[in-house]
Amino acid sequence: MKLLISILALLINLSVFSQNADDIIGRYHLPNSIDVELYRVGDKYFGKIIKLNNFENGQILDINNPDKTKRNNLILGMEIIKDLEFDVIEKQWINGSMYGAEKGLVFNLEITKYRENEIEVVGSKYIFWKTLTWIKIE
User: Fold this and answer.
1) Distances from the Cα of 102 to the Cαs of 1, 10, 24, 33, 73, in angstroms?
2) Where exactly are the structural domains of the chain?
3) pTM of the full structure
4) 20-137 under CATH 3.40.50.720, yes or no
């Protein structure tokens, strides 16, 4: 009986942690109302804005970009997530970056958990970090 319970526990753990690198590919709704699409290029993952949903009360230009020459660039279509890599041991996506157009800042980015309908994302800058949930959309 103990052997059966051990085998069942092992199978449950394997199914929970059997994430694949491409699992995050898709479209997500972010807490700031932006929709992004995550995609793979080579061995890394990137993301671009696909819908603004009245972001920042109608902001459509990159008005907070620290590079003044880019402040007239459209946010829609902008690649804001770069260079995420899948860590096969930790089953997480690491070493990425994300540009936050609402403040004009670049943050470190990791995806720490994947679930069928959402991902858990950690953004950090210096000693500050924030964990957010992005909802998968069709």
Assistant:
1) 57, 44, 24, 11, 13
2) 20-137
3) 0.83
4) no
Cα–Cα distance measured from residue 118 to residue 51, given in angstroms and rounded to the nearest whole number: 18
User: Looking at residue 1, what is its pLDDT?
Assistant: 53
- Please give the pLDDT value at position 18: 58
- Within 8 A by CB and 6+ apart from 20, the residues are none
Long-range contacts from 38-45, C-beta under 8 angstroms, 24+ separation: 38/81, 43/85, 43/86, 44/82, 44/83, 44/84, 44/85, 45/81, 45/83, 45/84, 45/85, 45/86, 45/93, 45/96
Q: 47: which strand partners? A: 38, 81
Mean pLDDT for back-to-back runs of 10 residues, the chain (138 residues): 43 53 96 96 98 93 97 97 96 97 96 95 95 94
Q: Which tokens is 91 given?
A: 């089953």
